[in-house]
Amino acid sequence: MSSSEGASAPDWYAEPLSWAKLQHIESWLLGAGPERWPDEVPGAELELAQGRVDLARRERATLSDATVRARLSLAEAGFRRVLSDSRADAQDRRHADAGIGEVAALLDGPAPSVADVGAFKIRKRSAWGARPSIPSRVHRNTRPWRKITVHHSATSSAGLATGSATASAEAIRLIQKDHMETKGWGDIAYHFLIDPAGRVFQGRDIGYQGAHAGGNNNIANIGICLLGDFEHARPDPRAMRSLEELISALSARHGIARSEVHGHNDFRATECPGKNLMAWVQRYSHGSGL
Ligand SMILES: [Zn+2]
Q: Residue 52's closest CA among 82, 29, 18?
């Protein structure tokens, strides 16, 4: 489109990672979008550059070294554009710096095996100061995991928004307290929690059934909660990246179909996981695997 009439506001945030998504962002950046939404440019550049890195890593085992290097250098150029863009805020700059570091590590490191995809760090319960579960109130999971359900915590705070690990740990302790003291459950409801900076925390031990989807819906159903309120806000791209990696790692390990990735409101009438996150879940579960 040559005129600004053809430009649309950024709308790719709810799209799971794919080359089509990256092409979509690229054509937005090359079109009239940046003129009409200048403040969205750093976010678009970051989403594009990070997407190139993630796909290069994911497809590395099947690509030539030259192709991987070409993709990574495009990503690095994108991160550098963000660093020199006066519209980028402190969080954008931190993301760009981390991205440049990640590109360097990928270029230097040995080629990872396919099994390494999604081999990110999961922080243990001690990292957020969990209290022990109450054994008489939790149930061992006895069947193969068949579903994954995505939730939001429906909470937001200034601390959480800064991406501080301390604020995230505090938010998770409060959720556990509510679940154990107010709801009377044996532990925090979810198996995993993801904070706005993309950190993944272990919640309830995966050896036990969760308490996140209501009654029998919890059977063989892994619960993942993103910290934040996504009825009103858009999830941080770093959190979405971790969510997608966690889901693909869990799906690969347990043989869970893409169509069995749900949002809480697939099981009951609730706002959870918020319309901005639910849009992603729906596109993910209806999409084809990469
Ligand atoms: Zn929920």
A: 18
